[in-house]
Write a structure and sequence with these properties.
This protein is mainly beta. Helices cover about 0% and strands about 50% of the residues. The strands form 2 sheets. A 6-stranded mixed sheet has the order 2-10-9-4-5-6, with no helix packed on it. It contains no helices and 10 strands.
Length: about 110
């Protein structure tokens, strides 16, 4: 059995930064492309960034230039560095590679 465990969320002021972590237990994360998703209250879940096995990255327009995805296969972890955060980034953030969903981590951007 394998699972994703997200962490690093919190309350931050507009313009601030956070780094989210996605730890993968039960399997080797280096074998999987990983996607970060988020779901804001009353909205559908959206994919915002992904990283391939080879380290190729992609970003949704809403986060491009502000968020950076990276992976540390030795730590079995994928990160999402978020900068210049905006109130519309408020959401629960999840990572996945097509398996079971974790609990997510709440990010709240508010002054």
């Amino acid at each position: 059995q394998y699972q994703f465990v997200e962490s690093g969320g919190g309350l931050v002021q507009p313009g601030g930064s956070l780094r989210l972590s996605c730890r993968f237990s039960g399997r080797t994360i280096g074998h999987y492309a990983i996607t970060w998703f988020r779901q804001a209250p009353g909205k559908e879940q959206e994919g915002i960034s992904c990283i391939s096995v080879d380290g190729i990255t992609n970003y949704a327009d809403a986060v491009k230039g502000r968020f950076t995805i990276s992976r540390d296969n030795a730590k079995n972890t994928v990160y999402l560095q978020m900068s210049n955060l905006k109130p519309e980034d408020t959401a629960v953030y999840y990572c996945n590679a097509g398996g079971p969903w974790g609990q997510g981590t709440q990010v709240t951007v508010s002054s």
